[in-house]
C-alpha cells in the first residue's frame, strides 16, 4: 500500500499524457489495425516506461545506486551502441521485396529518387524553425515513410528526439491510406488519375535478380558510403530471397526474424518516450514537420511524373510517382485502389509496386547521404 501511495503521488500530468498517448497507439494497432506489430509494442512501452519507480528502465535506488532496466539496456545495446536492431530488420525487409517489376521497367527507379524531395525540403524548414541540424535531418527523414531508417538516422546523429521521430514515422506509415489520397488529389486532375498504363513486363532472369542487389550495393557504396550498412543489409536480404538455394532462410528472414526484431524494436524505442522528454511543444512540431515531409514526398513524386509526361509519348499516371515513397506495399495498394476508383478497368498495381520498391532503395540511400553529409557540416 505504501508503494501504491508513493506511486500515485509521484505521477506527473506529463506521465498521464503519455498513458493516453500509449493507449491511443494500442487502440490504433488493435482496433484500426494500423501497423500493429510496431504501434502496439510502442504504445504499451510508452505506458510502461512512465510508471513511477518501475524496474523496466534505469532507476536510482536509495542504498543501492543505479539499477539497470531491461528497456534502457536493450536501447543501449541494440540501438545506441550498434544500431543493430534497425539494421537487422532490413534483412527481413529485403527478403520480402520482389524487385522483378522494377527490373522489368527500370525507369521507375526515377520515382524512387524524386519522391525523396520532401526529406530535404523539410530539413531546410526544420532548420529555419530553430532545430539544430542533426535534429532537423532526423526529422526530415520521416518523409521517407521508412521507420527503421528514421530510427537509425536519428540515433546515429544523436538527435534528442528519437522517440517522437519513431512515433511520427510509424504513425504516418500506418496512415498512408488516409494521407496519400488527399495529397495526390491536391496536384492531379480526374483526367490525369484516369490515365491507363499498359503492362507488358519484360522477362527478368534469375541471374539479373541475383546480380541486382550486388550491383546496387556496390554503386551505393561508392556514391554514398555511409549508406552501405543500410543498403547492404537490405540487398543481402533480397539476395537470400533470389539466390534460390536458401529458401528456408528466406522464409525465416521474412517471418521469424522480421517479426521478432519489429516487436523488440517497438518496445525498445519506447524507452525514449519518457514523459519529461516527450511531452513538449517540440514533439508537436516534429509530428507536424513529419507530416509536411510525407506530403511533400508524395506531391514531388506526382509532379515528377507530370514533368516526364511533357517529354514522353506513353503517358504515366501521376499517381504512380506518389508510390515512390518507401511505405511498401501500402502505397502501391493505395494507388491501385485510387486508379480503379477513377476507372474500374485501370490496373496500376504492378507499375506502382515497381515505383514503391524503388522508393525503398531511395529512402535508405537518402538516409546514407544524410549520415554522410551532416557530420561534415557539424565538424
Short précis:
The protein is mainly alpha-helical and 379 residues long.
How would you describe the overall organization of this protein?
The protein is mainly α and 379 residues long. The protein has one domain. The chain is built from 21 helices and 2 strands. The longest helix has 30 residues, at 349-378. The termini are far apart.
Distance N terminus to C terminus? 54 Å
Shape: globular
The DSSP helix count reads 21
Structural class: mainly alpha
| SSE order, one letter for each helix or strand | HHHEEHHHHHHHHHHHHHHHHHH
Helical fraction equals over 70%
Average pLDDT rating: 88
Which stretches are low in confidence, meaning pLDDT under 50 for 5 or more residues running? none
Largest sheet: 2 strands, antiparallel
Number of E-state strands: 2
Compute the CA-based radius of gyration: 21 Å
List the strand order in the largest sheet: 1-2
- Count of the domains: 1
What amount of the residues lies in strands? under 5%
Keywords:
379 residues; single chain; two-stranded antiparallel ribbon; mainly alpha; 21 helices
SSE order and pairing:
Blueprint: H1 2-10, H2 13-30, H3 36-48, E1 59-61, E2 65-67, H4 70-80, H5 84-96, H6 100-103, H7 109-114, H8 117-128, H9 133-140, H10 147-156, H11 162-174, H12 176-187, H13 190-193, H14 206-223, H15 228-242, H16 247-269, H17 275-278, H18 281-309, H19 318-322, H20 330-342, H21 349-378
Antiparallel strand pairs: 1-2
Helix pairs in contact: 2-3, 3-16, 4-16, 5-10, 5-15, 5-16, 8-9, 8-18, 9-10, 10-11, 10-21, 11-18, 12-18, 12-20, 14-15, 15-16, 15-21, 20-21
Amino acid at each position: 500500500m505504501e508503494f501504491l501511495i508513493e506511486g500515485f503521488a509521484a505521477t506527473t500530468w506529463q506521465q498521464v499524457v503519455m498513458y493516453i498517448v500509449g493507449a491511443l497507439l494500442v487502440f490504433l494497432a488493435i482496433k484500426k489495425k494500423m501497423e500493429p506489430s510496431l504501434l502496439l509494442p510502442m504504445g504499451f512501452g510508452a505506458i510502461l516506461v512512465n510508471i513511477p519507480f518501475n524496474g523496466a528502465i534505469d532507476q536510482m535506488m536509495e542504498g543501492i545506486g543505479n539499477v539497470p532496466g531491461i528497456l534502457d539496456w536493450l536501447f543501449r545495446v541494440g540501438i545506441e551502441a550498434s544500431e543493430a536492431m534497425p539494421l537487422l530488420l532490413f534483412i527481413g525487409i529485403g527478403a520480402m521485396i520482389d524487385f522483378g517489376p522494377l527490373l522489368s521497367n527500370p525507369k521507375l527507379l526515377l520515382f524512387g529518387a524524386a519522391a525523396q524531395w520532401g526529406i530535404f525540403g523539410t530539413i531546410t524548414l526544420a532548420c529555419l524553425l530553430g532545430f539544430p541540424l542533426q535534429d532537423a535531418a532526423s526529422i526530415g527523414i520521416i518523409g521517407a515513410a521508412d521507420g527503421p531508417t528514421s530510427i537509425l538516422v536519428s540515433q546515429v546523429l544523436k538527435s534528442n528526439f528519437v522517440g517522437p521521430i519513431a512515433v511520427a514515422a510509424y504513425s504516418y506509415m500506418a496512415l498512408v491510406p488516409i494521407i496519400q489520397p488527399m495529397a495526390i488529389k491536391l496536384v492531379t486532375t480526374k483526367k490525369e488519375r484516369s490515365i491507363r498504363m499498359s503492362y507488358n513486363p519484360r522477362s527478368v532472369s534469375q541471374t539479373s535478380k541475383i546480380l541486382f542487389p550486388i550491383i546496387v550495393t556496390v554503386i551505393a557504396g561508392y556514391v554514398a558510403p555511409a549508406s552501405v550498412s543500410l543498403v547492404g543489409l537490405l540487398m543481402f536480404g533480397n539476395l537470400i530471397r533470389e539466390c534460390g538455394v536458401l529458401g528456408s532462410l528466406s522464409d525465416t528472414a521474412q517471418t521469424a526474424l522480421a517479426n521478432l526484431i519489429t516487436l523488440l524494436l517497438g518496445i525498445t524505442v519506447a524507452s525514449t518516450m519518457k514523459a519529461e522528454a516527450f511531452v513538449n511543444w517540440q514533439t508537436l512540431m516534429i509530428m507536424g514537420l513529419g507530416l509536411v515531409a510525407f506530403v511533400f514526398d508524395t506531391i514531388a513524386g506526382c509532379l515528377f511524373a507530370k514533368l516526364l509526361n511533357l517529354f514522353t509519348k506513353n503517358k504515366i499516371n501521376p499517381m504512380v510517382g506518389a508510390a515512390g515513397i518507401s511505405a511498401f506495399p501500402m502505397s502501391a495498394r493505395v494507388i491501385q485502389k485510387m486508379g480503379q476508383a477513377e476507372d474500374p478497368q485501370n490496373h496500376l498495381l504492378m507499375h506502382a509496386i515497381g515505383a514503391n520498391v524503388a522508393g525503398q532503395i531511395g529512402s535508405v540511400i537518402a538516409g546514407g547521404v544524410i549520415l554522410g553529409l551532416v557530420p561534415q557540416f557539424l565538424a
